[in-house]
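Q: My labmate handed me this sequence with no annotations at all. I'd like to see what the chain might look like in three dimensions before we decide whether it's worth expressing. Could you predict it?
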Amino acid sequence: MSKTVLGVYNSSDEVVRAIEEFQNQGYSVNDMSIIANTADTPSSIEEETGVTSQEISSNNQPQPEEHQGFLASLFTPFENRMYQNDDGRDTYYDHLVAQGISNADALKYEEDINSGMVLLLAERGQAGVSTAGGMSTGTIAREQTGLEEDTLDREKQRSLQLREEQLDVDKQRVQTGEVEVKKEVVNEEETVNVPVQHEEVYVERRAVDKTEADTTTPIGEDETIRVPIVEEKVEVTKKPVVTEELVIGKKQVTETQQVTENVKREEAKVTKDGEASINETTADSDRIDSDRL
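A: Here is what I predict for the chain of 293 residues:
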């Protein structure tokens, strides 16, 4: 059965995460295999996931069995006889083409393998989806975009959605303080000037012209004049009076606070290979930032 490339990945960790994702989509570890130009990387992946490797030798020497998967070791002699160039050297290109990969994609995948990347393959038509499941790591296989170089349909269009994070700010009412208003008694000394009246007795001596005295009253008898004296006394009383009124209430005050947070956004990166031409257009200039392209 022919194979399809599920993805191209930069590290063993990315491959392991991708295998787990494809298993969740229905793939079996027996349906998947990997190709890399080093023996250590496939060996560690095989030990962790159980997915076998398809390592081939560039000098027609079979890989040691400790660096191959169990199933791969069974097929290595058969593959070495089938996938050789005229000079007797095996190539990743021939190996991929023999498994149903297109010539153009096989050349590019060969470059990826030689640069140290790891290919993840599966039997074509097995369970699961035909893309890399929207994983954030690795590179989606070229076959799975539906835009192979030798089968490009000019009438077909594909869309790529760019996403970004936006701040969602929520407000909560919380008590931040409390104001207490109460009355307390303050003692102070107050002085008031009050005018008061009192009576005084005065004695005025006057000279008289008469020399004759009253003969009816003998000299020597007591004669007393009593004069009552009255004065005003100050009496102090206190009474409460209202001097001030406090009105207590609450009012809403609006102020602006700045919230700063890091957000992520996706940007489109357009690259071209060879003499390919790109014609970029903008449908809505008010919503699209041309600097992101």
